[in-house]
Amino acid sequence: MDLRVVLVEPENPLNVGFVARAMRSFGVEELVVVSAKLKAMPAEAYVTGVSAPELLSSARFVKNVEGALRGCDTAIAFSRRPTALRQDEFTLPGIPDSLNLEGRTALVFGRESKGLTRAETALCPYLARIPCQNGVSLNLGQAVAVALFSLTATDGELPERAATASLDRMSALWDFVHPKLAASPRFSEERQKRIRQMFFRLHLNDDD
Q1: What phi and psi, each to the nearest 5 degrees, are found at residue 106?
Q2: What pLDDT does residue 84 have?
Q3: N or C: which end of the chain has fewer CB atoms below 10 A?
Q4: 73-84, pLDDT tens digit by residue?
Q5: Is 193 in contact with 122 (CB distance < 8 Å)?
Q6: How far is CA 125 from CA 58, 171, 177, in A?
Q7: Measuring CA to CA, which residue among 29, 117, 34, 118 is closest to residue 69?
Q8: How far apart are CA 162 and CA 160, in angstroms?
Q9: Whole-structure pTM value
Q10: CB 56 within 8 A of CB 96
């Protein structure tokens, strides 16, 4: 299983270290940080990520979520917020039959204080939730650990699923269609996001 962990504008470097430690524990090695400010890993991250210094030093820094998803076959956004985008949504540890984990899959986590924006979530074909009680959410490092455990626990036992077009190809299709939609006043930004999710739900393949 080829997983990429994407952290969008993490606010506490200590949490990034915890994330790296969780990744090391489950054999995941690719970390991408979305940040307009950071260009290198802060020293504080190595304090909590003491068991994964190589992973922290090899992390890539990009300016936006689009760049972080480049090269992936699919992507899962993690959020506790309700959504009106009609994404393929599921709650861990369950995994939908349509989710093909055989290619490179990005796991996208948002800011500690406010999570992912709706626009960022809309870039991902899937939306996952981690069930928590009493209105409490997990720390970023804990959330990544739970997600990795839930997904890697099925490694080697995944049923065969039809191959779908990669996220890169779906993004290219959207880049072709989007200007035409945006030029029409009938299609608000919210409606455009929903149409993008409709494309994802079609599970197109390369022949399509």
Answers
A1: -90, 130
A2: 67
A3: C
A4: 999 999 887 776
A5: yes
A6: 27, 11, 17
A7: 34
A8: 7
A9: 0.82
A10: no
